[in-house]
Amino acid sequence: MLHNVRASPANINRAAEQLHYFQKVCRAELLDFSCLTGNNDIHALSISDLSTTSSEFLIPTEIKHC
Q1: Residue 9 and residue 33: Cα distance in Å, rounded?
Q2: Measured between alpha carbons, how far is 14 from 7 in angstroms, rounded to an integer?
Q3: How many CB atoms lie within 10 A of CB 25?
Q4: Alpha carbon distance 23, 29 (integer Å)
Q5: Is residue 54 part of a domain?
Q6: Residue 4: its pLDDT value, please?
Q7: Which domain holds residue 29?
Q8: Would residue 4 count as lying in a domain?
Q9: Residue 40 has pLDDT above 80, yes or no
Q10: pTM of model > 0.70
């Protein structure tokens, strides 16, 4: 259950900063991953760039097993 948090300007600004940081980190991780897989652009990534050791992801996602 969510607590009743007041949407004060300070809370909104903090949430916006946290979201910005999260997106910045995700972008950096995607850029690193795209370089590791030989792609120059994160938009060139595809499912064929992924592999898994878990059989739970094989059927629902079509990710290849390594």
Answers
A1: 36
A2: 11
A3: 10
A4: 10
A5: yes
A6: 66
A7: 9-65
A8: no
A9: yes
A10: no
Q: Tally the domains of the chain.
A: 1
* Residue bearing tokens 């060139």: 44
In a domain, 1, yes or no: no
Establish if 2 belongs to a structural domain.
no
DSSP secondary structure letters along 14-65: HHHHHHHHHHHHHHHHHHHHHHHTT-SSGGG--GGG-EES-GGGHHHH-PEE
Tens of pLDDT, residue by residue over 2-33, are: 566 677 888 899 999 999 999 999 999 999 99
Interatomic CA distance for residues 8 and 6, integer angstroms: 6
Per-residue CA distances from 17 to 12, 14, 21, 29 (Å): 9, 5, 6, 18
Q: Are 31 and 18 in contact (CB under 8 A)?
A: no
Residue 16 has what pLDDT? 94
